[in-house]
């Protein structure tokens, strides 16, 4: 019997890779062939990671959500669990001392789960942080000429243990699960399965190899087995610095893709450009939860992350001695960051509405519908490159509505669904081992006739090259896959004649290979952060 991926591909009447390339060769020749590829390259430019994506969030980097991952755990023996990874605080240079990148004690970081398709949170995991100085707030002092004087660094010597006595700054956190509305629902604390504590220690950032000789081993001591109220199976949790897992050439792509066309149009050169984020770290909140604890009558769940600050902040012009004593927050929690599907606020939402999107909830996404049904990006690219007639014309763009707002029927669309932007995962689809994962997710699986439907846009794994996948979607590639049969539920307007790029869309890439980013084989999956010095 043919494999599931082959059956899906046959149903969609997808051409083989060889057929695609032959078709491209016959349809597009010489200088003309470079035109759609140039357009595609610029589209890739806009699809950078969600770093600094809205005006206000650039002023509050500690609560800037960069990437969100949700996938069936592919670590050996953990396949019945779902891993949720929310990254914050972008573009961390490893040498960012002396204060490094502690998380904000005046912020509320959240991961929300919708398990009935109504665009409202049913479960929320809420993270709060506490940063205190040693000696009950006095800090570490040295005897200098008979006087006790506080040291300027966050460490007073080498560090290797949880609650290491050489750390002047202790970072800890607590986590609650809220069932129902995030503010008025029932809240209960996650506890350490080993000792029942509701407080967890966060490892200090990777200061460097002299301070922390074995950072991987030190960080591993901060991976906790946790009891989750309402869940009979313990989960796992880690919060700490990681190497940024996203791959992209930020400077080049935002400069109208200032790269040679000979590189970005050659599928053999998907890794030709350097990864700008390859030397950056990020702050990670990672949870692994048994899938039965997240679902409710439907295998499909939706999820998104947020960060909120207090509505008011009083700055003290004469702060007292202590840690972070310069402000006093107050008032209601006010959401300032939101992230579900990657890249949405960065390249889909208009500049004038980016802050509004970050403050919004999925249940209110009707206000942003025009940005998806009638996207400006393809037209903007035509203007920038002076190559009219290359953008898809299937308005409204039901292919993008399905991909971003409802999930794809038969893949990750809930039984009942309210159109809203979030990352959706079918927890019934088994995970695929890392080595066998298709870096192009479901799109790559369809093209290859494989059996990997466990990747983006069905959730998102660290290996999934969401830039290249999104290129295919934005430039109409999914319409080509849909064909005239409406097999993916995109609507009758989505057909090959509405996609000027045709099969070329399947060939697009941004010259940076997500699949070669170093990752761990198991939880928390993201690689050990880069050290300040080696």
Topology readout:
Elements: H1 4-12, H2 17-27, H3 34-46, E1 65-72, E2 81-93, E3 107-114, E4 123-133, E5 141-144, E6 147-150, E7 169-179, E8 186-189, E9 191-192, E10 200-202, H4 215-220, E11 224-227, E12 235-243, H5 250-254, H6 261-264, E13 280-290, E14 300-315, E15 327-339, H7 344-347, H8 354-358, H9 369-373, H10 377-385, H11 398-406, E16 423-426, H12 441-448, H13 466-474, H14 477-482
Antiparallel strand pairs: 1-2, 2-13, 3-4, 3-14, 4-7, 5-6, 7-8, 7-10, 9-11, 11-12, 12-13, 14-15, 14-16
Task: Summarize this entry quickly.
With 534 residues, this protein is an alpha+beta fold. The chain has 14 helices and 16 strands.
Can you characterise this structure?
By secondary structure, the chain is of the alpha+beta class. It folds into two domains: 4-47 and 366-512, no CATH class; 60-255 and 276-337, no CATH class. The protein has 14 helices and 16 strands. It has helices at 4-12, 17-27, 34-46, 215-220, 250-254, 261-264, 344-347, 354-358, 369-373, 377-385, 398-406, 441-448, 466-474, 477-482, and strands spanning 65-72, 81-93, 107-114, 123-133, 141-144, 147-150, 169-179, 186-189, 191-192, 200-202, 224-227, 235-243, 280-290, 300-315, 327-339, 423-426. The strands form three sheets. Strands 3, 4, 7, 8, 10, 14, 15 and 16 form an eight-stranded antiparallel sheet that branches. The protein has a six-stranded antiparallel sheet with strand order 1-2-13-12-11-9, with no helix packed on it. A two-stranded antiparallel ribbon has the order 5-6. Strand 5 (141-144) and strand 6 form a beta hairpin. Helix 3 crosses helix 10. The radius of gyration is 24 Å and the shape is globular. It starts with a helix and ends in a 52-residue tail after the last helix.
């Amino acid at each position: 019997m043919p494999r599931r991926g082959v059956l899906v591909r046959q149903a969609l009447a997808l051409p083989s890779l060889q057929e695609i390339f032959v078709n491209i060769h016959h349809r597009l020749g010489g200088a003309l062939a470079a035109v759609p590829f140039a357009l595609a390259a610029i589209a890739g430019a806009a699809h950078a990671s969600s770093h600094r994506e809205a005006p206000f969030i650039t002023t509050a980097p500690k609560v800037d959500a960069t990437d969100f991952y949700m996938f069936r755990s592919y670590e050996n023996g953990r396949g019945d669990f779902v891993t949720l990874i929310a990254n914050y605080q972008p573009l961390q240079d490893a040498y960012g001392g002396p204060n490094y990148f502690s998380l904000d004690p005046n912020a509320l970081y959240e991961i929300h789960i919708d398990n009935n398709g109504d665009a409202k949170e049913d479960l929320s995991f809420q993270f709060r942080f506490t940063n205190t100085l040693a000696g009950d707030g006095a800090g570490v002092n040295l005897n200098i000429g008979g006087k006790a004087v506080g040291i300027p660094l966050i460490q007073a010597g080498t560090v290797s243990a949880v609650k290491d006595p050489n750390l002047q700054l202790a970072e800890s956190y607590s986590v609650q699960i809220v069932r129902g509305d995030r503010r008025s629902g029932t809240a209960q604390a996650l506890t350490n399965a080993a000792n029942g504590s509701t407080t967890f220690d966060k490892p200090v950032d990777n200061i460097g190899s002299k301070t922390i000789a074995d950072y991987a081993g030190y960080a591993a001591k901060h991976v906790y087995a946790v009891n989750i109220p309402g869940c009979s199976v313990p989960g796992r949790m880690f919060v700490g610095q990681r190497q940024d897992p996203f791959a992209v050439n930020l400077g080049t792509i935002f400069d109208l893709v200032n790269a040679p066309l000979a590189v970005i149009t050659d599928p053999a050169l998907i890794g030709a450009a350097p990864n700008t984020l390859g030397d950056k770290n990020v702050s990670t909140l990672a949870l692994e939860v048994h899938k039965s604890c997240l679902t409710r009558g439907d295998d499909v769940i939706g999820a998104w992350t947020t960060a909120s600050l207090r509505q008011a902040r009083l700055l003290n012009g004469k702060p007292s001695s202590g840690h972070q004593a310069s402000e006093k927050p107050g008032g209601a929690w006010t959401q300032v960051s939101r992230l579900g599907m990657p890249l949405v606020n960065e390249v889909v939402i208009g500049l004038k509405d980016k802050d509004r999107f970050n403050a919004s909830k999925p249940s209110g996404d009707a206000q942003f519908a025009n940005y998806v049904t009638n996207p400006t990006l393809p037209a903007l690219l035509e203007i920038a490159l002076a190559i009219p007639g290359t953008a898809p014309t299937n308005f409204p763009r039901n292919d993008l509505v399905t991909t971003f707002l409802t999930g794809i029927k038969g893949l990750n669309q809930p039984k009942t669904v309210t159109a809203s932007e979030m990352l959706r995962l079918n927890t019934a689809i088994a995970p695929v081992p890392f080595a066998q994962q298709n870096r192009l997710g479901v799109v790559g699986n369809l093209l290859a006739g494989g059996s990997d439907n466990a990747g983006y846009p069905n959730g998102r794994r660290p290996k999934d090259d969401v830039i290249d996948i999104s290129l295919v979607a934005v430039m109409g590639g999914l319409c080509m896959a849909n064909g005239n049969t409406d097999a993916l539920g995109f609507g009758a307007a989505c057909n090959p004649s509405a996609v000027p790029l045709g099969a070329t869309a399947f060939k697009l890439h941004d010259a940076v290979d997500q699949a070669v980013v170093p990752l761990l084989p198991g939880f928390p999956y993201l690689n050990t952060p880069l050290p300040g010095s080696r």
